[in-house]
């Protein structure tokens, strides 16, 4: 059976469009995964350093600054439709204002952490970190699939 060149071209174009649609948000998904991984690692390191007998304030400040950069990048990494092939729930886009408010709250807590570290206030830093972690956990329960 012979296929006309136009049918082959149409099929190839449709296949390429389907592939492009699936991979459309691949970069955003990778970037937000990397940001969340970095946030988790820095968070763990900061928590450990705050429990230390000799608190390494310069290290804490550097890690806190990196943490702020990672959290501020998140707001642009959830374009509409990027839940496909990710662990993000559609609920993010169904209630975008609520989701953005939660991200902003997390960011404010990490800014408070940074301020406390600048002031070398261990108790305020621990409290800000606790509040940030609480916000993270709450958001994950609402907006992230575990499978």
Explain the overall architecture:
The longest helix has 25 residues, at 26-50. Helix 2 packs antiparallel against helix 3, helix 3 runs antiparallel to helix 5 (96-118) and helix 5 (96-118) packs antiparallel against helix 6. The protein has 147 residues and is mainly α. It has a single domain (26-143), classed as Cytochrome c/b562 (Four Helix Bundle (Hemerythrin (Met), subunit A)). The chain has six helices and no strands. The protein is elongated and about 75 Å long.
* Radius of gyration over all CA atoms, rounded: 21 Å
Examine the coordinates and then state which fold CATH places here, giving the name of the CATH topology. Answer: Four Helix Bundle (Hemerythrin (Met), subunit A)
Q: What oligomeric assembly is this protein in?
A: single chain
Structural class: mainly alpha
- What does the average pLDDT come to? 85
Domains counted in the coordinates: how many? 1
Contiguous helical run count: 6
Spell out the CATH superfamily: Cytochrome c/b562
The secondary-structure element order is HHHHHH
The helix fraction, in percent, is over 70%
Q: Could you describe the largest sheet, including whether it forms a barrel?
A: none
Beta-strand segment tally: 0
